[in-house]
């Protein structure tokens, strides 16, 4: 998977749910950017069950985003997903949902 890197401010918004979860604890800044880039790429796919993997070679942290079904809320495209993060060999996951915001952005539903 290759996509333009997400800026840090966008990464923190997109990953708000992940960063509050146990799965997001211990993520470095570069981990968050890699995770957000993968999440944005996964959410933008048209298929349920699509997996987008990411890895930060400098920290050893990795993860994957698996897309759930997409649906409409007030004429806005939304999608469920599962984000699995592996930090120091420990795998944790969290489920979330996000809705399209603007041209390329997604905002978490909290």
Structural summary, described in words:
This protein is α+β, with helices and mostly antiparallel strands and 110 residues long. The protein is 25% helix and 41% strand. It has helices spanning 8-14, 16-20, 29-43; strands at residues 51-55, 62-73, 76-87, 90-101, 105-108. Strands 1-2-3-4-5 form a five-stranded antiparallel beta sheet. The termini are far apart. The relative contact order is 0.21. The mean pLDDT is 82.
Strand order of the largest sheet: 1-2-3-4-5
Biggest sheet architecture: 5 strands, antiparallel
| Intertermini distance | 27 Å
Q: What is the radius of gyration computed over CA atoms, rounded to a whole number of angstroms?
A: 13 Å
Shape: elongated
Number of strands: 5
Overall mean pLDDT? 82
**What structural category arises from helix and sheet content?**
alpha+beta
Percent in helix? 10-25%
The amount of beta strand, in percent, is 35-45%
> Helix count?
3
pLDDT under 50 segments (min length 5)?
Answer: none
Order of SSEs = HHHEEEEE
Search tags:
110 residues; alpha+beta; 5-stranded antiparallel beta sheet; 5 strands; 41% strand; elongated
Brief digest:
It contains three helices and five strands, in the order αααβββββ. By secondary structure, it is of the alpha+beta class.
